[in-house]
């Protein structure tokens, strides 16, 4: 496992973790609000690393990446961040696996298009914010603790973060793992969470234009994002595959690591097969017709 420092939008330095097979199909893991690349430990250190090139950036404001005072409501900066990672690491048509706060990858597609990616994996994802309709997809309990997540008062913020973290998992992590998680959540300045959560954005128009393969994964016992968002997203992206993970919560990649990794592997491998078939079809179409 190695790390890279990449200059993202407006020069913000991004910390990027890489593991796995350098020659393999790239998979880029984007963590959720207030998390970091460590959230993907069950993927980076798994059997996926044998066959795939696994890349996990810390989003701006998170983990070991730069934490500017502003810019978290700027879709172009988020787009530039992901573009910088794909370009600097020379990632060819990666699968982008985005958990929960799916806006960075959708910002990227809005500004750069989808030609440079191989597929999109939305995991417990929200794709709109700032309206009653958008907030209806988020559990009332999560909305209730939001003011604490935005508070600079440690006595309010830390308990809110603990409650928030507990809500992510159906199967609670051991204490040592939980407090590691709490540590990297505390490391995110409260104003970053507030700015990200306060965005007003609706990606329904963008989702309806997607043509690359899409996999939607959602835990059936998600306590943060309502299960009915799956139907909304499927209506907008009819060609999307859907994987409802029974007995998994908002972080299905941790609640059931084996099942999640197996499904992600199958999706990623299917892209290579589809790409080969498409290339063969294009070659056949380009060949001159035979003569008698």
CATH H-tier superfamily: Alpha/Beta hydrolase fold, catalytic domain
- Reported by name, the CATH topology is Rossmann fold
Question: How many runs of DSSP E, i.e. beta strands?
Answer: 10
Q: What string, H for helix and E for strand, traces the elements in order?
A: EEEHHEHEHEEHHHHHEHEHEHH
User: How many DSSP helices?
Assistant: 13
Q: Taking strands numbered 1, 2, ... along the chain, how are they ordered across the largest sheet?
A: 1-2-4-3-5-6-9-10
The average pLDDT score comes to 94
Mind describing the biggest β-sheet?
8 strands, mixed
Identify the CATH class: Alpha Beta
In CATH terms, what is the architecture?
A: 3-Layer(aba) Sandwich
Spatial gap, N to C terminus: 58 Å
Cα gyration radius (Å): 19 Å
Helix-strand blueprint:
Layout: E1 2-7, E2 13-20, E3 25-30, H1 41-44, H2 48-51, E4 52-57, H3 75-88, E5 95-101, H4 103-112, E6 119-126, E7 128-129, H5 132-135, H6 140-150, H7 154-168, H8 175-186, H9 190-197, E8 201-202, H10 204-207, E9 214-219, H11 229-236, E10 241-245, H12 252-255, H13 257-286
Parallel strand pairs: 3-4, 3-5, 5-6, 6-9, 9-10
Antiparallel strand pairs: 1-2, 2-4, 7-8
């Amino acid at each position: 496992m190695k790390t890279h420092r990449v200059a993202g939008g407006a020069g913000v330095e991004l910390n990027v973790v890489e593991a796995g097979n350098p020659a393999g199909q790239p998979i880029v893991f984007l963590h959720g609000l207030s998390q970091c690349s460590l959230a993907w430990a069950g993927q980076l250190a798994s059997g996926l690393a044998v066959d795939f090139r696994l890349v996990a950036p810390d989003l701006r404001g998170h983990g070991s990446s730069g934490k500017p005072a502003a810019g978290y409501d700027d879709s172009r900066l988020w787009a530039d961040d992901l573009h910088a990672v794909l370009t600097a690491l020379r990632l060819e048509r990666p699968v982008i696996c985005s958990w929960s706060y799916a806006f960075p990858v959708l910002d990227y597609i809005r500004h750069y298009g989808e030609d440079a990616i191989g597929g999109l994996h939305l995991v417990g994802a929200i794709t709109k914010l700032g309206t009653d309709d958008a907030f209806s997809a988020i559990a009332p309990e999560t909305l209730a603790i939001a003011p604490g997540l935005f508070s600079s008062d440690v006595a309010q913020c830390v308990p809110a973060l603990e409650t928030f973290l507990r809500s992510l998992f159906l199967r609670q992590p051991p204490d040592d793992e939980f407090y590691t998680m709490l540590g990297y959540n505390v490391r995110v300045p409260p104003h970053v969470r507030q700015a990200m959560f306060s965005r007003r954005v609706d990606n329904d128009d963008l989702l309806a234009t997607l043509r690359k393969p899409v996999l939607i994964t959602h835990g059936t016992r998600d306590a943060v994002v309502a299960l009915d968002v799956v139907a909304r997203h499927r209506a907008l992206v009819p060609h999307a595959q859907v994987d409802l993970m029974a007995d998994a919560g908002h972080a299905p990649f941790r609640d059931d690591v084996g099942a999640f990794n197996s499904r992600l592997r199958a999706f990623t491998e299917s892209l290579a097969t589809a790409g080969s078939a498409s290339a063969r079809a294009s070659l056949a179409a380009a060949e001159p017709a035979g003569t008698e």
